[in-house]
Amino acid sequence: NDVEKNYDVIVVGSGAGAMTAALFAADQGNSVLIVEKTDKYGGTSAISGGGIWIPNNDEFRALGGKDSYEAALTYIKAASQGSVDETRIRAYLDNAPKMLRELQANSRVKFAVADKYPDYYQHLEGSLPGGRSMDPELYDTTGLGDEMDNQQPAAGNALLMGKMSWTARQAHKAVSKERGWMLMIIGLMLRYKLDFKQRKKGRRDRRAGLGASLVASLRHSLCDRNIPLWRGTEFTDFVINNDKVTGIKVLRDGQELTLNARYGVIMGSGGFEQNQALREKYLPAPSQQSWSATPKGGNTGAALEAGQKLGAATDLLDWCWWTPTLNVPKERNARGLFAERAFPGAIVVDGAGQRFFNEAAPYLEFGDAMYRNHQKMGNSIPAWVVFDGHFRHEYAMGPLMPGKIMPDSRAPKAWLGSVYFKADSLAELAKLVNIDADGLAQTVQKMNHYAATGVDEDFDRGGNVFDRYYGDTKVKPNPCLAPLTKGPYYALKIHPGDIGTKGGLLTNEYAQVVRPSGEPIAGLYAIGNSSSSVMGTSYPGAGATIGPAMTFGYVAANHITANR
Ligand code: FAD
Predict the structure, then answer these.
(1) What homologous superfamily is domain 1-149+213-319+502-564 in, according to CATH?
(2) Does the predicted interface ipTM exceed a cut of 0.95?
(3) What is the Cα–Cα distance from 228 to 305, expressed in whole angstroms?
(4) Cα(456)–Cα(140) distance, rounded to whole angstroms?
(5) For ligand 1, atom 34, which residue shows the shortest CA distance?
(6) Alpha carbon separation from 364 to 38, 315, 350, 360 (Å, rounded)
(7) Which terminal residue of the chain, N or C, has fewer Cβ atoms less than 10 Å from its own Cβ?
(8) Which atom of ligand 1 is nearest to the CA of 530?
């Protein structure tokens, strides 16, 4: 019927960018429909850290922090090295703080400034040691009721002990063992355990954290407005009239439907990381879907392929938001190793037993370095994280909680020989996982020397405030360096995985999809990983994927409304 098939704006996908676009479009008086292919809303955004990187935001200024449009522009330009048009960067800087201000004023979404989370490239002009990354506050999901069951569930590794929600600020406090961290953990545990009403219902924490908080608070805000969200509805193609996108075709309950969008279609349907054929076509080899940390079955490149058919320009298709990942039996998605590489006493080596990069470097650069070293040496896919018995006792690594909480005897048996490998000596470990034993011995000898002097003469690990963010404040002289001296020794296999692809449909400063000539395709917008990233080949800070997705969702809604 007409009511169901005609809308002013249709948004495809239900990640944070898509929901933000829908929210603003609706508040500007448009009738809006969201379609989501899977039976859960939220996409990768829901299982993410939920951080958004918003330069020059009001919250940081309110804390007395100093940032400016010019400093952020200088920084992004230096980071992206000409791989993206400056007009789009400026559109981002103009709109990101406004989007956040308006969203927080008019919805249930609440962020706090992560004032200690440094920008990723501390050596570049315009970087800040904190204040641009925003961290979602914990969100009480009671009001969402049963709709919370339809949200893409948070991965176990986003939760404290696989159960309890926390913020990125709290997780950082615990990881770096800042003063008061133990008390904080006890507080979180008590709050969870003493919530008897919720415990009767099951394991899920009443309060959502990280990406689950962001997506739940957005979903709740959409429910407040009665904006329809059709799950299990797959976009298959555009409807075109006189060169203008006027609607979409979808598959719903096995039926093809045509849905009309009077003023615009916004593609927020993610990238193509869950499509092995497209990975092989565009990404550097080798590349496996199973290395991706994003939800299975979701982002298979629908926006890209339909856009290409229309003659849209594309960019950055050979890039992912790289992250070294490891696969754990029975876990739904690969796990990103975002932080643990930086903990003191863990090193990453190739098959020759050599380090090839600063382990504490940002994850995009680390993944990229795995490919570059592999192209040169042919031996860093997989690469190996190696650490000793002291490290195992003290720190978490992937799914292994610190040995003092989860000794090997209490770790699942299936993990030994699949997730982690263990031997009494370094030489035996090298043999077990097929790393060159002499190379590994020399690397460890060098690292032990660097740990004593505090200076990593090869890669300057721990040499800036970003590296040290995940260091152990109690380890001196360098919180990211500790010797490997105490058996047994351990190794974990890692691959250059991803948290989404970075390339996609090329857009202009209004989030309109453009043709190679630069001319916009009327009625068509793309945001998030459906579009090629405004950050080009860089990852300037925590939240540099969802921040732009939400900001260009806001920009697209504004542009549609202004031109309707
Ligand atoms: P998604 O959030 O994946 O949403 C796309 C949606 O579109 C999905 O629900 C999908 O099912 C749906 N869809 C796909 N095809 C169709 C179709 N044909 N029809 C209808 N629907 C379709 N980034 C940050 O900025 N900050 C962080 O803190 C952060 N932490 C992360 C932590 C982890 C563990 C991971 C895995 C990622 C993290 N990221 C983070 C990356 C970030 O989550 C993603 O890059 C981002 O969420 C992508 O947003 P999106 O809207 O493009 O896609």
Answers:
(1) FAD/NAD(P)-binding domain (3.50.50.60)
(2) yes
(3) 26
(4) 44
(5) 48
(6) 27, 18, 18, 11
(7) N
(8) 52
